[in-house]
Specification:
This protein is mainly alpha-helical. Helices cover 82% and strands 0% of the residues. Helix 1 packs antiparallel against helix 2. The longest helix is centred in the first third of the chain and has 76 residues, at 3-78. It is rod-shaped and about 115 Å long. The protein starts with a helix and ends in an 18-residue tail after the last helix. 25% of the residues are buried.
Length: 186
């Protein structure tokens, strides 16, 4: 046998084996990329599901806290506040606080700015209502000013809801103003 024939045969076998190895490695890289893409899509989906659940709870609990403040003001006007009234208001406040704390860890900045505005507005009304309940209002605090501030909370709630919907891709409207039309009574 001629040495050149052996070299050609070895080169042919090496080429065949090398080609198979390169094809296999390329296939493995492609599969790894596909797995990374699938994982990325799953992570994005899981993140959106987590944010959606958080937003639903935060929206509900902020509205319930607002409603509880409204009820408490009605009680203040109509009769003496009882322990059950205080407990209902505190439960709504605590639920909102818990949801807001969760949102602080999950929500993007655009939503968190709106959620923070709602939280601050609710706490401002709550403080005023509690001072009125104790009979120790600060200068200028009356039931009328508390009711006015309470009505302003609804606008903040609409803006927060719009920001959350925009973040979830439910609404393409980038404005966070009037959404949902109706005027909620306080």
């Amino acid at each position: 046998m001629d040495l050149s024939a052996v070299i050609i045969a070895v080169a042919g076998v090496a080429g065949t084996l090398g080609g198979s190895l390169l094809t296999q490695r390329g296939s493995e890289r492609t599969k790894l990329r596909e797995i990374e893409i699938v994982r990325s899509h799953e992570e994005i989906h899981e993140n959106r599901v987590l944010r959606r659940a958080c937003y639903v709870d935060l929206n509900r609990d902020a509205r319930q806290f607002t409603t509880a403040l409204n009820r408490h003001m009605h009680v203040l006007r109509e009769r003496d506040v009882e322990e059950a009234d205080r407990a209902a208001l505190e439960a709504a406040k605590d639920a909102h606080r818990d949801r807001y704390s969760e949102a602080q860890m999950i929500a993007p900045d655009e939503v968190l700015v709106r959620a923070s505005a709602v939280n601050q507005a609710l706490n401002k009304v709550y403080g005023q209502v509690k001072r009125l309940e104790r009979g120790e209002p600060e200068p200028g605090e009356t039931m009328q000013t508390a009711e006015r501030q309470g009505r302003a909370v609804w606008q903040e709630l609409r803006a927060m809801r719009a920001a959350m919907r925009h973040d979830l891709g439910v609404s393409q409207d980038g404005s966070f103003g009037e959404l949902g039309g109706g005027r909620e009574a306080f």
